[in-house]
Amino acid sequence: MTDQTVRRTFTPAPLAAVAIDDAFWTPRLAANRTQTIPIEYEQCRITGRIDALHQQWQPGQPIPHYFWDSDIAKWVEAASYSLATHPDPALDAQLDEVIALLAAAQQPDGYLNSHYTAVEPENRWTNLRDNHELYCAGHLIEAGVAHYLATGKRTLLDVVRRYAGYIATVFGREPGQKRGYPGHEEIELALVKLFRATGEPRYLALAAYFVDERGQQPHYFDQEAIARGDDPAAYHFKSYRYSQSHAPVREQQEVTGHAVRAMYLYSAMADLAGEMGDATLLAPLEALWRHLCTRNLYITGGVGVSAANEGFTQDYDLPNLSAYAETCASIGLVFWMHRMLQLRCDGRYADVLERALYNGVLSGVSLDGTRFFYENPLASRGNHHRQAWFDCACCPPNIARLLASLGEYIYGVGDDAIAVHLYIQSQAALTVAGQRVELRQTTRYPWAGDVTLALTLPQPAHFALRLRIPGWCRRAAVSVNGVAVDMEGRLDRRYLVLARTWQPGDRITLELDMPVEQIHAHPDVAQDVNCVALQRGPLVYCLEAVDQVAPLHRIRLAADAALTPQFEGELLGGVVTLTGQALAADAAGWENVLYRAAAPALTPITVRAVPYYAWDNRAAGAMTVWLPVAG
Ligand code: ZN
Fold first, then answer.
1. Residue 264 belongs to what H/E stretch?
2. Consecutive 10-residue averages of pLDDT for the chain (631 residues)
3. Of 199, 350, 435, 450, which one's alpha carbon is 20 to 30 angstroms from that of 256?
């Protein structure tokens, strides 16, 4: 962003106003609803997370983890979104039961944390740096808001309002208050949601306090450690860059530290910029975006390369086999970009949102919705597989809540404009320029680039339709009621702006050219030198061993290789594969030789690439996104 005005210009269409009916997404959303969400409840039950809410822990029993409440909260949030679009009395009742336990676990002063209350009540708020108390509170707040908006019930909303009200008495700049803020960001964006749901400015003020106080000196985490009797210099992660608290947020120019924390912080900064009209947050947000997208983002939308800090390392360090790329971090990137799009309808943000959503997020769950990746590497020797659950189970419920709320990401509504950010077949009932507009989107995206939008209006209405022209698309054509529209002069930040008086029954058709492309990495990405990745439309492709006649490491792609897209309805739930000629290094003649002066012969073979999100859903085997180029 270059200018210094800021406002939340485009708000998401309400979840219940958008009905998704899409060949690509509907099966994934159904798996989320019928498999993932019930599995998550069951895992919360059998692992003791729900029992821990009874707060009857006794010494000698397994200790409820200090982040367990967040897993329950994210399940409540996901299940609530599901109710908003798919009423389900049994799920509704199950939610009520869990919420009753949460309400009963709340302390008289409003505090709510099953670990601290049962295990170490004397240590409340003594280790914000490491122990996720405010992070769990944030997820509970998001859950309370989601449940209220989906069902109209105030049961959990009232609990989290009391909790947030209590937190506001503990933290702040008044005498007797702690100048603390969370080690793991999350509550900041949650408080903005609570402000929007209730209209109470004190929640927005608390969010702004947490963001503004971050990284100030004297450093709160030093003081807190000393108060605990710990040596601040003995901090396990050495630097407060780990939690983005090394500097005040307005001085931050580079993405750093733990990736999920970073994405949640930047999301809150974008929220606050819009709600407070705080333009001083725009320059850091833009710098952070640029640093991420030009130095530190995987082609899959994966974020955070290293397991050691679950986060960033050095610029251009993007290893494939050991890529961390936590599912939650790509989800956090979707959250951040969604908020940037609300500030400014700019295709740069939508492109990154889409890249993460269709690749690094979607790979996080199996096609049937029952197994999950925590890490999403871009290459595998065949030993990396999705799991049923994790001890640290942040990713499964995070993907559940994102997929269950996907309808919020498709359309943005402004004062006199509707933005179409994502091409997903759906029906939306929106209000723009004071008038009700029904918008029917028909598309085969992401398998084909044809989109039709049909408008149902009670009477003619003047507003702008802003249609995203994806960054990967080099040729697009648009027509209104069959008449071609010249796109020259109508593009604004990669959105095609069609402003006119729309008539009932108007139809807009968009054709997005979607060729197969070989994508190169920056020359300083050492791991991708002399390699290309295959991309078609929003989807990044990979090669899996099960589809090839030669071991993956022997395969080379010719620079001019023609790969043919073909829809295969029986494969992986129906995918477009890319098939074509490649070359395989021949091991003939190498039986008794490890090194020799002559290069191996190259033999023509046929390769088949599948979308990256769908890998590891068949026979276990090696996988790679980046392929060496022959010659
Ligand atoms: Zn996670």
1. helix 259-276
2. 75 96 98 98 96 92 93 98 97 98 98 96 97 97 98 98 98 98 98 98 98 98 97 94 98 98 98 97 98 98 97 98 98 98 98 98 98 98 96 96 98 97 98 95 98 97 98 97 96 97 98 97 98 98 98 94 96 98 96 96 97 96 97 73
3. 350
Closest CA to 273 of 2, 493, 5: 5
Decide: 292 and 255 in contact? Cβ < 8 Å: yes
Helix/strand/coil for 215:
coil
Query: For residue 416, which phi and psi values (nearest 5 degrees)?
Result: -140, 35
Expressed in angstroms and rounded, the spacing between residue 402 Cα and the centre of ligand 1 is: 13
CA of 355 to the centre of ligand 1 (A): 18
In angstroms, the first-to-last Cα distance of the chain is 42
The one-letter amino acid at 535: Q
Would you tell me how many other CB atoms lie within 10 Å of the CB of residue 251?
9
Q: Token pair of 215, please?
A: 């990284």
Helix-helix angle 187-198:259-276, to 10 degrees = 30
Q: How far apart are CA 239 and CA 233, in angstroms?
A: 9
In the reported structure, the alpha carbon of residue 399 is separated from the centroid of ligand 1 by a whole-number distance in angstroms of 9
Q: Going by C-beta distance under 8 Å and a sequence separation of 6 or more, which residues neighbour residue 577?
A: 565, 566, 568, 571, 608, 609, 610
Return d(Cα 144, Cα 622) in angstroms, integer. 42
- State how far the Cα of 560 lies from the Cα of 552, in Å rounded to an integer: 19
Class of residue 155 by CB neighbours under 10 A (exposed 0-12, middle 13-18, buried 19+): middle
Question: Which residue type is seen at 153?
Answer: K
- Residue 467 burial (CB < 10 Å; 0-12/13-18/19+)? buried
Active-site residues, by number, are 310, 394
Pairing of the two strands 495-502 and 461-468: antiparallel
**In terms of Cα–Cα distance, which of 534, 20, 125, 40 is closest to 300?**
534
**Interval between CA 373 and ligand 1 midpoint (Å):** 9
**What Rg value do the Cα atoms of the chain yield, rounded?**
25
What distance in angstroms lies between residue 631's CA and the mean position of ligand 1's atoms? 40
